[in-house]
Every structure is written in C-alpha cells, then in structure tokens.
Design goal:
The chain is mainly β. Helices cover 6% and strands 41% of the residues.
C-alpha cells in the first residue's frame, strides 16, 4: 500500500521530532567521552598560565562516561592507563588549601591513606590533590605536578619525599608555590634512580629546623630553576650526598647558617645568589687526607656559602654575601671550576682544600671586603686566574706551600697582597679549630706567582715567609713578571724569613700609589 501524502507528512514530522533525541543519544565522533565538562578552577592564574598554552583543562576521558565521582582509589599497580592531563601532558594539580586542616603523619601525608586525594567542593575537582606527597605517590614517572600558589591555594606544610623522576612547578603566574617544612623535618628529600632527574621550577621552600637540611639529595639528579630557598636556622639549605647531582639555575638562597653542602657529588650552579644573614659562630672544619673516602674524616659546621667537598662540576655567575667562608672547595677526580662569582663581606672569601686527583680552577672571581680573599691549603692543587680581590683586611691571596698557579690577577688594598707561606704554618690562627693534612708530603714545586698586579698594600705586595713552629722550613716557588705598587713604609717584596729563597725575577716595583678606578 502506497502511503498517502498525509501519511508521509505525519511520519516526516515524527521523524524530525525524534531526530534531536537520536542525535543526543549517539556518541560524538572520536573519543565518546570528550564532551564531559572540563575542570575549570576559579582563578586568574589559570588564564595567565605559562608555558602551556592555551589555558589548561583537565582531560576526564579516562573517567566513567556517566560520572567521575565517586571514584576508586588507584594505587601504584592499579593505576589506569590514561591519566588526567593538561593540554596533553600527564599532569596532576595540587591545591594544599582544599579540605581544611587535617592530621598528617611524620612525612606530611594525610592519615586517610597514601594515594588518596580529596574531591573538595569545587565542582569537577576529583583530580585535584590536597598534598604534594599524594600526587607524587599517584603520579607515573616523568609526570608534572602543578601546585596552586598561596592566594588561590595555601602554603603546603609537609615534608615531601620523591623517589621517581617528576617535574614539580607552580600553577599560574601570580607567584611561587610555597612548600614549608614541618618542625624538625626537611622540605624535600629526593632519592631519584641514577640517570633520572627531579625538576623543580618556580617553587619557594621554607625551613626552620637545625636538625635537617631544607633539601636533601640522597641519589639521582635534582634540577631547580627560578626558585628560592629560605633556610634561616637550618644546618644546610641543600645537602647533596655521594652520587647525587645538584643543578641550580637562576635561584636564590637565604640563610643565617650555610647554603649548599655537597660531598663527593656533582654540582652545576649558575647564577645562584646566596645571602647569609649572620656568621653563626666560627666555622668548624675537620678535613684531612682521608676525607674523600672516610665519612668521619671531615665535618663542616658553621656559616659557609658553598661547601663543595671532593666534588666536581661548575659554579658560574651568582653572588655570595656574608658568612665565615664564602666558598669552600676541594676537587673530585674530574676537577671543579668556579668562574665569574662575586663574594663579598665574608671572613674568608674562598678556601681551597686538598681533594682527589682533580684540581680547583678559579676564573674571574670578584672577592671584596673580606678578612682574607683566597686561601690555598697545603696539597690543594689549583689555578687562580683573572680574578679581582679588593679591600682585604689581611691578605689578598695566601698560598701555604702548595702547587698552585696564581696568574693575571688584580689585588688591591690589603696588608699583604700575596703571601707565600710554609705548609707547616697551616692552619692560620683565625681557624683555631681547623685541621687539614696535605695530601702530598715533601716538595711539590711550590706556588707559581706570575703576571699579577698587586697595589696599594699596607705591609708588602708579596710576602715570602717560611717560618712555622719556631723554625724555618723549606719553601719553593716562583715569583715572575709581577707589577707591584708599594708606598710609604710598605715594601714590594718581603723575603726576610726565607732561607731557601723563592726564585724572584722580572718583577716591577713602583714606589707610588696605583689609582684604582673603582
């Protein structure tokens, strides 16, 4: 039977009326869960977030298509294949202000169990963690954890433990996320598998405990960029253990004790600024010939900007203000290079100690307003070149019978510009509790001092003194091609206490004042 026009019209109307229902019931092309409402956090920071562009949204495609809540707690071996991500990245969001104050265990985790996170009350917020430890436990390796900074979130008061490669950064552009250590605990402990790295970007750490460092690098590589550490009162801002590696770039450390300690580790520091508020008592050092292999052979306490024990790597740029010692360095096997660093208002600007087979290289350092600019201990193989040491109370550079090259430096305003001393006279009296044993006994050739400018001294431009313990000792070395300025009662070269004279030749002595441009 052929339908009449009325019947065609009636069925057509019914079909058109049902068409929206059919279209609504059918899944969209591609991923059937793409139409779930995205996570949107009510924050101006979301609109300014960088480096991801456009504004990130939580991908909920891994949830059940009917609803994301309530959801199961996924532990490490139950983790779903798809993780929530921001703009395609495997990323987890942390808001430490969600859910109000809660009880935490000794590591800053919540009492409700590891891996669980709080859903809160911000709409579709099931993927927002309320602690960094929860997110770190839940995240797969090489994920990114974004922390909402104070203002939108709250300060994260917890001791973070990371044992996998991750990136931890600030979410938004309104300021740095803040991680504050609970009393008696570190801000962060990193035990990363060797070959992997933990990246910290744009985060501020706060610690007030003298028992632990703010950041402890137990193993693996830790990279910190554009961040800051406020560790007033702590023993160390950073403590890098053997086999650990620390990379600091464009960051600042504020402390009234010590900033960075690395022992038999690798360091790469670039444009790091260190402010030491108080001297914190005399620096106590006990570094001997076995220090590089004996944990009990060397201990450091007191106020030291950078303490790099038997370590290797580079330190470039940046500044250190204050402290009993600005930089303490002894080389690892592959050597340690320190270049373009400014050290001011420290008792001792740079102290070089014996280490392993490598040498410490100081290039273009600027050391000002210290008691002693640079001290080279016996057995510390080193090179000091192109540096400027000004306004030293006692000595610009002091070398204690060691094989070191001191070349092309400028030393202005000091009692003695350069001192060549017997190794037996080490340590100097201003380190009363300091002890160090030379790695090499006997004659090592002595220091080579050449092509330096030494000016405006109060006693001697160069002082050669072999006395120690009430008698004179053998003292070798070379003093060649230096330009010396001394006026008044000062002398260019004082070698009255040197029975075995250091070879002195081709030096220029000027009995006038050198007009320093600064």
């Amino acid at each position: 039977m052929t339908p009449t026009p009325q019947r065609v019209t009636r069925w057509s109307r019914l079909g058109l009326a049902a068409l929206p229902l059919v279209l609504f019931a059918l899944p969209a092309a591609g991923d059937p869960y793409d139409n779930l409402p995205p996570y949107t956090y009510p924050s101006e920071a979301a609109a300014q977030w960088y480096p991801y562009d456009p504004v990130p949204e939580i991908d909920s495609s891994w949830c059940n298509y009917r609803a994301c809540a309530p959801r199961r707690v996924f532990h490490e071996r139950q983790r779903p294949e798809g993780m929530p991500g921001l703009s395609g990245h495997q990323t987890l969001l942390v808001d430490c202000g969600r859910g109000g104050p809660r009880g935490r265990d000794g590591h800053g985790r919540e009492d409700r169990g590891r891996g669980q996170h709080h859903s809160g009350s911000h709409g579709h917020g099931e993927h927002v963690f309320s602690s960094i430890n929860e997110a770190a436990d839940f995240a797969p390796p090489n994920s990114t954890i974004l922390i909402i900074p104070p203002g939108q979130g709250m300060t994260c008061v917890e001791s973070v433990e990371v044992r996998k490669p991750l990136t931890i950064a600030t979410y938004g552009g309104s300021g740095k996320a803040v991680i504050q250590a609970p009393p008696g605990q570190p801000c962060l402990t990193a035990h990363i598998p060797l070959g992997d790295e933990l990246v910290l970007d744009g985060v501020r750490f706060i610690a007030r405990s003298r028992q632990t460092p703010c950041v402890a690098v137990e193993a693996g590589r830790v990279v910190m960029r554009n961040s800051s550490v406020d560790s007033r009162g702590t023993e160390w801002g950073f403590d890098v253990h053997e086999s650990g590696e620390l990379v600091l770039e464009g960051s600042k450390i504020e402390t009234d004790a010590s900033a960075v300690h690395a022992r038999r580790a690798t360091v790469t520091l670039k444009n790091v600024d260190i402010d030491i508020g108080g001297r914190g008592g005399a620096t106590l050092l006990n570094l001997g010939r076995t220090d590089c292999i004996d944990r009990d052979g060397g201990t450091i306490h007191g106020s030291v900007g950078l303490a790099l024990e038997c370590s290797e790597g580079t330190v470039e740029g940046g500044s250190i203000i204050g402290g009993a010692v600005g930089i303490l360095a002894s080389s690892g096997t592959r050597g340690l290079r320190i270049a373009d660093v400014k050290v001011t208002k420290s008792d001792t600007g740079i102290l070089l100690l014996p280490g392993q087979l490598g040498s410490v290289t100081i290039e273009r350092a600027a050391v000002a307003k210290t008691r002693n600019g640079i001290i080279v201990a016996p057995g510390a193989e080193s090179q000091i070149t192109g540096s400027v040491i000004t306004d030293s109370r006692d000595t610009g550079i002091a070398a204690f019978g060691t094989s070191t090259l001191i070349a092309s430096n400028k030393i202005i305003n000091a009692d003695d510009g350069i001192r060549i001393m017997a190794s037996e006279s080490f340590p100097p009296p201003f380190f009363p509790e300091f002890s160090a044993i030379a790695v090499f006994d006997g004659d090592d050739g002595g220091p080579v001092v050449e092509n330096n400018l030494v000016a405006n001294v109060r006693h001697a431009a160069v002082r050669i003194d072999a006395r120690a313990g009430g008698r004179q000792h053998r003292l070798d070395g070379k003093l060649i091609g230096n330009t010396l300025y001394a006026m008044g009662h000062a002398v260019c070269i004082d070698d009255d206490y040197n029975d075995d004279p250091v070879r002195v030749r081709a030096n220029t002595c000027n009995r006038e004042r050198f007009f320093w441009p600064f």
